[in-house]
User: What shape does this take?
Amino acid sequence: MKYPDLTNIIGGRKVSAEGQFLDVFSPLNGELISRVPLSGSAELDQAVAAAQKAVPGWAALPIKERVQVFYRYKTLLENHKDELASIVVEENGKTTGEAVAEVLKSIEVTEFACALPQLTTGEIEEVSRGVECRSDRKPLGVIASITPFNFPNMVPNWTIPNAIALGNAMILKPSEQTPLSANRLAELLSEAGLPDGILNVVHGAKETVEAICDHPGISAVSFVGSTKVAKIVYARGTANQKQMLALGGAKNHLIVLPDAHEQMTASDVAASMSGCCGQRCMAASVMVAVGQVDNIIEKLCNEARKIVPGKNMGAVISRAAKDRIEGYITEAERQGAKILLDGRGATVSGNENGFYVGPTIIDHVTSDMAIAREEVFGPVLSILHVDTLDEALEIEKASEYGNAAAVFTQSGGLARYVAEHASAGMIGVNIGVPVPREPFSFGGWNQSKFGVGDITGKSSIEFWTQLKKTTIKWNPEARTNWMS
Ligand code: NAD
Assistant: This one.
């Protein structure tokens, strides 16, 4: 085993767990690289107690002082970029370039957190002569962040800098499939000067998450993962009076019109469907071809052929994921869809036990097929054909999800029409992965998100704080009014 058994990080200390452990495998070669503790409520109790002890002192600091930690953290992320990326590569199986991009996004979110003093100034107004009302954003106390396997560095950082800079103490529960990055991030935050107990890492799986949803000492929880689990977590947390934001899965549609720029569309769609092995909640999953776009489909296949597992493409997370993805492809083929590019059975020489699936493009998929409706979460693109833009939009709107949608066209009017009518939270115009950059917020619609607001950017300020309103009078001569 390359890494020793992982520990939880509680109150600034590495705390060895005593209960059960789960094996952690590298998707690149199937090798056992570490073991992750499956913490229960006893470990969570310790973490919440450590957070409760630390949070009053942290929350009492002016925000300008709190963000100094994140200026230093940003520099540490930059200095350790390659090392952090190598951990992601090993535990998640993505390519080095993709892992570096993930760390760069973590840096961007941290830059946003450094700007929070500029964005949280509060409001004040004289509401009656000599009487003022002011509102201030106050932290919630102890909060939790539960994260998925696909971005072990970036998704924890969607929440760590903003939630903590705003004055909260966090319990981070990373994915048990990719748990290594979280401990390294906690070490860097400690090096950046974050007081002990403000970030606690509690490893585990279902039971740990359930304990978080039930814990009376935790006031808010963000969750990022599949829709099935997002719904369970959202319902359980709100039933326990917690403020909840749960981001779920996706089924993103790209609408391609005949006037789309041929080469740009082909490269963008190929990159969107196969980047991170299709394991992005923003990945293209369905391409709706409007009218005659055979020239673009041909170029798209040529572009996708250049993406090769083990060369410029990584692995999927597990054998179970590989089997699931290949099962969807086989079922679509059985139902009469035409496989233009087949990534099943991909192997990488020297890493025969890795979990590889090559880019797969399937034409003549119909709306009733499972592959057209369900989240595949692999490098697979289904192509559906329609005659009109409105038919394409009907298909997009019929999806239960609503994370991203994109249109490829050179017509501004048609692009605007799609942006207006698509039922998704993040829209791309000639962009295959329309992730909003800071200060804009990240979050989908429909079954891709449960709760109010988004997880990053300006919207996250609302989620991680509560407003305190104070009404003030100093002098007896202040005028009273009907409210007095
Ligand atoms: P997952 O739902 O299986 O796991 C997410 C988290 O929930 C993990 O920490 C896991 O330990 C925990 N968990 C798993 N099963 C649970 C259960 N039954 N009860 C309570 N907790 C449980 O998701 P994943 O496979 O790690 O990640 C992939 C999914 O995440 C995809 O569906 C993808 O679209 C989604 N995702 C969404 C976004 C977004 O922003 N909307 C971003 C990244 C990933």
Notes: The CA atoms of residues 307 and 313 lie 6 Å apart. The first helix runs from residue 41 to 60. The chain has a mean pLDDT of 97.
